[in-house]
Amino acid sequence: MPFVLTYPLQWALSRRPQWHRYLHTLNRYWSKLFICMWGMPVEIVRKNPLPARQPCVYVANHSSYIDIPLLFKTIPGWLNIMGKSSLAKVPAWGPIFGRAYITVDRDSAISRGRAMVQARRTLEAGRSVVIFPEGAISKTPGQQLEPFKDGAFQLAIAAGVPVVPITMPLNHRFMPDVDGLRVRYSPLAIILHEPILTTGLTAADAPALKQQVYTTIASALRPEAGGIPEPSTWRQPQSASPAAPGAQPELAANRH
Protein backbone atom coordinates (compact mmCIF):
# COMPACT_ATOMS: atom_id res chain seq x y z
CA MET A 1 0.00 0.00 0.00
CA PRO A 2 2.74 2.58 0.81
CA PHE A 3 4.33 1.92 -2.59
CA VAL A 4 1.04 2.12 -4.47
CA LEU A 5 0.01 5.37 -2.80
CA THR A 6 3.34 7.02 -3.57
CA TYR A 7 3.78 5.47 -7.02
CA PRO A 8 2.61 8.47 -9.11
CA LEU A 9 5.03 10.78 -7.32
CA GLN A 10 7.84 8.20 -7.54
CA TRP A 11 7.29 7.82 -11.26
CA ALA A 12 7.39 11.59 -11.76
CA LEU A 13 10.54 12.05 -9.64
CA SER A 14 12.32 9.24 -11.48
CA ARG A 15 12.02 11.07 -14.80
CA ARG A 16 14.80 13.58 -14.12
CA PRO A 17 18.19 12.86 -12.50
CA GLN A 18 18.13 16.13 -10.55
CA TRP A 19 15.02 14.86 -8.76
CA HIS A 20 16.48 11.47 -7.76
CA ARG A 21 17.59 12.74 -4.36
CA TYR A 22 13.94 13.45 -3.51
CA LEU A 23 12.92 10.10 -4.93
CA HIS A 24 15.33 8.34 -2.58
CA THR A 25 13.94 10.28 0.37
CA LEU A 26 10.47 9.13 -0.62
CA ASN A 27 11.72 5.53 -0.99
CA ARG A 28 13.20 5.72 2.49
CA TYR A 29 9.89 6.85 4.03
CA TRP A 30 7.74 4.29 2.26
CA SER A 31 10.24 1.56 3.20
CA LYS A 32 9.97 2.55 6.86
CA LEU A 33 6.19 2.56 6.69
CA PHE A 34 6.15 -0.72 4.76
CA ILE A 35 8.21 -2.51 7.43
CA CYS A 36 6.25 -0.87 10.25
CA MET A 37 2.94 -2.04 8.79
CA TRP A 38 4.09 -5.67 8.90
CA GLY A 39 4.49 -5.27 12.67
CA MET A 40 7.94 -6.87 12.76
CA PRO A 41 10.35 -5.69 15.48
CA VAL A 42 13.63 -4.52 13.96
CA GLU A 43 16.92 -4.78 15.84
CA ILE A 44 19.46 -2.24 14.55
CA VAL A 45 23.06 -2.61 15.75
CA ARG A 46 25.71 -0.02 14.87
CA LYS A 47 29.13 -1.26 15.94
CA ASN A 48 30.81 2.13 15.44
CA PRO A 49 29.81 5.57 14.17
CA LEU A 50 29.90 5.89 10.40
CA PRO A 51 32.48 8.26 8.90
CA ALA A 52 31.00 11.75 9.00
CA ARG A 53 30.33 13.44 5.66
CA GLN A 54 32.16 10.79 3.70
CA PRO A 55 30.68 8.39 1.16
CA CYS A 56 31.12 4.68 1.84
CA VAL A 57 30.74 1.39 0.04
CA TYR A 58 28.18 -0.58 2.04
CA VAL A 59 28.57 -4.32 1.48
CA ALA A 60 25.66 -6.52 2.60
CA ASN A 61 24.65 -10.16 2.46
CA HIS A 62 21.61 -10.90 0.28
CA SER A 63 18.90 -13.27 1.50
CA SER A 64 15.41 -11.83 0.96
CA TYR A 65 13.07 -9.53 -0.94
CA ILE A 66 13.00 -7.32 2.16
CA ASP A 67 16.75 -6.53 2.00
CA ILE A 68 16.50 -3.31 0.00
CA PRO A 69 13.68 -1.73 2.07
CA LEU A 70 15.53 -2.58 5.29
CA LEU A 71 18.73 -1.00 3.94
CA PHE A 72 16.81 2.11 2.86
CA LYS A 73 15.28 2.33 6.32
CA THR A 74 18.59 1.97 8.16
CA ILE A 75 21.40 3.64 6.20
CA PRO A 76 21.37 7.44 6.38
CA GLY A 77 21.96 9.81 3.50
CA TRP A 78 21.36 9.71 -0.23
CA LEU A 79 22.24 6.21 -1.40
CA ASN A 80 22.83 4.55 -4.70
CA ILE A 81 22.29 0.81 -4.80
CA MET A 82 23.49 -1.75 -7.30
CA GLY A 83 20.95 -4.41 -8.24
CA LYS A 84 20.61 -7.07 -10.89
CA SER A 85 19.29 -5.91 -14.25
CA SER A 86 16.17 -8.08 -13.95
CA LEU A 87 14.90 -5.70 -11.23
CA ALA A 88 14.38 -3.07 -13.93
CA LYS A 89 11.87 -5.45 -15.57
CA VAL A 90 9.64 -5.83 -12.50
CA PRO A 91 6.23 -4.28 -13.21
CA ALA A 92 5.71 -0.76 -11.78
CA TRP A 93 8.79 -0.69 -9.51
CA GLY A 94 11.26 -1.84 -12.18
CA PRO A 95 11.37 1.25 -14.45
CA ILE A 96 11.72 3.52 -11.41
CA PHE A 97 14.60 1.44 -10.03
CA GLY A 98 16.28 1.29 -13.42
CA ARG A 99 16.26 5.08 -13.81
CA ALA A 100 17.24 6.02 -10.26
CA TYR A 101 19.76 3.33 -9.28
CA ILE A 102 22.47 1.12 -10.83
CA THR A 103 21.54 -2.09 -12.62
CA VAL A 104 24.01 -4.74 -13.70
CA ASP A 105 23.91 -7.95 -15.71
CA ARG A 106 26.35 -10.16 -13.81
CA ASP A 107 26.89 -12.34 -16.90
CA SER A 108 28.03 -9.41 -19.05
CA ALA A 109 31.54 -7.97 -18.68
CA ILE A 110 30.40 -4.80 -20.44
CA SER A 111 27.49 -4.35 -18.04
CA ARG A 112 29.70 -5.00 -15.02
CA GLY A 113 32.24 -2.45 -16.24
CA ARG A 114 29.55 0.16 -16.90
CA ALA A 115 28.08 -0.41 -13.41
CA MET A 116 31.48 0.10 -11.78
CA VAL A 117 31.96 3.36 -13.67
CA GLN A 118 28.54 4.55 -12.46
CA ALA A 119 29.38 3.55 -8.91
CA ARG A 120 32.74 5.37 -9.03
CA ARG A 121 31.05 8.56 -10.27
CA THR A 122 28.46 8.20 -7.51
CA LEU A 123 31.19 8.07 -4.84
CA GLU A 124 33.02 11.01 -6.38
CA ALA A 125 29.79 13.00 -6.09
CA GLY A 126 29.70 12.28 -2.36
CA ARG A 127 26.95 9.66 -2.50
CA SER A 128 27.35 6.24 -0.86
CA VAL A 129 26.85 2.97 -2.73
CA VAL A 130 25.28 -0.30 -1.56
CA ILE A 131 26.47 -3.53 -3.19
CA PHE A 132 25.52 -7.18 -2.66
CA PRO A 133 28.88 -8.89 -3.31
CA GLU A 134 27.31 -12.36 -3.54
CA GLY A 135 25.68 -11.20 -6.77
CA ALA A 136 22.40 -12.99 -5.98
CA ILE A 137 20.32 -14.21 -3.06
CA SER A 138 22.17 -16.94 -1.20
CA LYS A 139 21.18 -20.56 -1.80
CA THR A 140 21.60 -21.23 1.94
CA PRO A 141 20.41 -17.95 3.52
CA GLY A 142 21.34 -17.40 7.13
CA GLN A 143 23.75 -20.34 7.08
CA GLN A 144 26.49 -19.66 4.55
CA LEU A 145 27.40 -16.80 2.26
CA GLU A 146 27.95 -17.27 -1.43
CA PRO A 147 31.47 -16.45 -2.71
CA PHE A 148 32.00 -12.69 -3.00
CA LYS A 149 32.72 -10.92 -6.27
CA ASP A 150 35.72 -8.59 -6.43
CA GLY A 151 34.05 -5.43 -7.75
CA ALA A 152 32.94 -3.80 -4.49
CA PHE A 153 36.41 -4.04 -2.96
CA GLN A 154 38.27 -2.88 -6.05
CA LEU A 155 35.85 0.05 -6.21
CA ALA A 156 36.36 1.06 -2.57
CA ILE A 157 40.16 0.93 -2.89
CA ALA A 158 40.17 2.87 -6.17
CA ALA A 159 37.92 5.57 -4.69
CA GLY A 160 39.72 5.59 -1.33
CA VAL A 161 36.49 5.27 0.66
CA PRO A 162 35.67 3.07 3.68
CA VAL A 163 33.89 -0.26 3.36
CA VAL A 164 31.05 -0.88 5.82
CA PRO A 165 30.09 -4.58 6.14
CA ILE A 166 26.42 -5.24 6.86
CA THR A 167 24.82 -8.45 8.11
CA MET A 168 21.08 -9.12 7.84
CA PRO A 169 20.73 -12.53 9.51
CA LEU A 170 16.95 -12.98 9.70
CA ASN A 171 15.38 -11.47 6.58
CA HIS A 172 14.99 -14.87 4.89
CA ARG A 173 12.83 -16.04 7.79
CA PHE A 174 10.36 -13.22 7.19
CA MET A 175 10.16 -13.03 3.39
CA PRO A 176 12.22 -15.72 1.64
CA ASP A 177 13.17 -16.01 -2.02
CA VAL A 178 10.61 -18.61 -3.15
CA ASP A 179 8.04 -18.92 -5.89
CA GLY A 180 5.07 -16.75 -5.02
CA LEU A 181 4.84 -14.76 -1.79
CA ARG A 182 5.65 -16.44 1.52
CA VAL A 183 5.60 -14.32 4.68
CA ARG A 184 6.24 -15.56 8.19
CA TYR A 185 6.33 -13.70 11.49
CA SER A 186 10.00 -13.17 12.32
CA PRO A 187 11.86 -10.32 13.98
CA LEU A 188 14.32 -8.55 11.69
CA ALA A 189 17.89 -7.56 12.49
CA ILE A 190 20.57 -5.52 10.73
CA ILE A 191 24.15 -5.10 11.95
CA LEU A 192 26.32 -2.27 10.62
CA HIS A 193 29.85 -3.38 11.41
CA GLU A 194 32.82 -1.13 12.05
CA PRO A 195 33.94 0.70 8.89
CA ILE A 196 37.12 -0.60 7.29
CA LEU A 197 39.39 2.13 5.96
CA THR A 198 41.01 1.67 2.55
CA THR A 199 43.50 4.54 2.80
CA GLY A 200 46.88 3.39 1.48
CA LEU A 201 45.55 0.14 0.00
CA THR A 202 46.23 -0.84 -3.60
CA ALA A 203 44.53 -3.18 -6.04
CA ALA A 204 46.77 -5.98 -4.76
CA ASP A 205 45.06 -5.66 -1.35
CA ALA A 206 41.56 -6.30 -2.73
CA PRO A 207 41.55 -10.10 -2.08
CA ALA A 208 42.56 -9.60 1.56
CA LEU A 209 39.94 -6.87 2.00
CA LYS A 210 37.30 -9.12 0.45
CA GLN A 211 38.18 -11.95 2.85
CA GLN A 212 38.09 -9.60 5.85
CA VAL A 213 34.63 -8.34 4.91
CA TYR A 214 33.39 -11.88 4.19
CA THR A 215 34.54 -13.06 7.63
CA THR A 216 32.99 -10.03 9.34
CA ILE A 217 29.58 -10.46 7.71
CA ALA A 218 29.56 -14.23 8.27
CA SER A 219 30.44 -13.80 11.95
CA ALA A 220 27.04 -12.19 12.65
CA LEU A 221 24.91 -14.80 10.88
CA ARG A 222 22.68 -16.85 13.14
CA PRO A 223 22.91 -20.47 11.92
CA GLU A 224 20.13 -21.55 14.26
CA ALA A 225 17.80 -19.36 12.16
CA GLY A 226 19.12 -20.67 8.85
CA GLY A 227 16.99 -22.21 6.14
CA ILE A 228 13.76 -21.32 4.39
CA PRO A 229 10.51 -21.50 6.39
CA GLU A 230 8.20 -24.28 5.33
CA PRO A 231 5.07 -23.65 3.22
CA SER A 232 1.81 -23.20 5.06
CA THR A 233 0.17 -26.37 6.41
CA TRP A 234 -3.28 -24.80 6.23
CA ARG A 235 -4.90 -27.18 3.79
CA GLN A 236 -7.95 -29.39 3.67
CA PRO A 237 -7.31 -32.87 5.11
CA GLN A 238 -7.30 -35.53 2.42
CA SER A 239 -10.09 -38.06 2.73
CA ALA A 240 -9.07 -41.66 3.13
CA SER A 241 -8.97 -43.61 -0.11
CA PRO A 242 -11.54 -46.42 -0.39
CA ALA A 243 -10.39 -50.00 -0.03
CA ALA A 244 -9.82 -51.96 -3.20
CA PRO A 245 -12.73 -54.18 -4.23
CA GLY A 246 -12.49 -57.60 -2.67
CA ALA A 247 -9.95 -56.57 -0.07
CA GLN A 248 -10.27 -58.20 3.33
CA PRO A 249 -11.65 -55.84 6.00
CA GLU A 250 -8.57 -56.04 8.21
CA LEU A 251 -6.25 -55.31 5.27
CA ALA A 252 -8.45 -52.39 4.20
CA ALA A 253 -8.28 -51.02 7.72
CA ASN A 254 -4.50 -51.26 7.71
CA ARG A 255 -4.37 -49.27 4.50
CA HIS A 256 -6.19 -46.41 6.20
TrEMBL record:
Residues 224-256 are annotated as: Disordered. It comes from Hymenobacter glacieicola. SUPFAM superfamilies: Glycerol-3-phosphate (1)-acyltransferase. The keyword Acyltransferase applies. CDD domains: LPLAT_AGPAT-like. The keyword Mitochondrion does not apply. This is 1-acyl-sn-glycerol-3-phosphate acyltransferase. Residues 236-249 have a biased composition (Low complexity). The lineage of its organism: Bacteria, Pseudomonadati, Bacteroidota, Cytophagia, Cytophagales. Residues 56-171 form the Phospholipid/glycerol acyltransferase domain. It holds the Pfam family Acyltransferase. Pathway: Lipid metabolism.
